[in-house]
Amino acid sequence: MDPETQRALGLTTRLLSEPPDLAVVADPESWALVRKYAKQFGVAPLVAHIARLHVPRSDKEWCDGILTRSWTLHENSLYHLKFVLGLLSDAGIETICLKGPLLARRYYNPPFLRRPSADLDIGVRESDLRQACEVLVRAGYVRTGSLEEDLACSHHVELTHPARSAIELHFRASHGALGIRVDEFFGRSMLYPLPGGGTAHVPGPADEILQLVLHLAKDRYKPIFHLYEIRRLWRAASSAVREEVLELAANHHFRGVTVLTDVAFRVRWGESFLPPHLPKTKTWLNWRIDEQLYSAFEDWDKPEGDLTLHERIHGRWLELQTTDRPADALRFFGLMARVAWFQIRQRGWRTIRRHEAVSRQVKIPL
Question: 100's torsion region: left (phi>0), alpha (psi -120 to 50) or beta?
């Protein structure tokens, strides 16, 4: 991470602390830097809300523009979510709303202070996945990949629509094919009243926090929105819920992820994520999970399409260091092999189709 981005991250963290450090806003140079990076860090609505009453009139326009856009996107996202839930419910498919506008309505006031979702994350049982895709395709959505590959390599199926929010149908809670099955969440889910009538299922408190922690790790600790959100929910959780989160993580072999999240909390917020009274059970690479590893994750942050082979391998190595046991590392390598196989096969099919297209256009003399 370059020095300017690092400084902007530190200033933004100070502004998002409780209470916010308003000295960041009072200094024109610091405020300009925070404003420059607010969207990149995913916290522009929060920054605008905190700063609005403490900046000059010209900067209030920037704040109002951010908040107005965020409010509009939140309402649109909620409208599209209700539409999709209705489609799946009419087909007899149970769902759980992950993250998105319903999390915003439960933990942010006003709800549009949460970063607007680019898509809708909806959990379904794996046994309902194919039918759910068929229902949405009939409604005009387009699946972006093959169901076979998604089941083997991913944790969700992506669908897009020309006029509606994109959808991610989650059958696992992040971490690709190594993630926790969403089926497990249904028994602990809770009903939440939808604006205008009706209800929707949301994850139980412990499942919701764990899913966010896993998403943070899957996003390779990209600064800083996800970490801020976990801290927000963690502070609102009871000690019993916190212990349940850590117990679930340990049972599913994601203890290393919680240890690195603890490092992130200490680096960014100066506080712990792991309760001090809990026994410190170590992972097989526990000695590598430290501030240096967390900094390496932050430095690695790049768009997936811009990565070189070396950078991709380095990213996998970073992820490998958070595995709990050698057996988990082997499962991780197995997943990487499956992903590589599907990518090679896809390139092969594209080459065949390209050759077929050429042969149809070019007449080869006999």
Answer: left
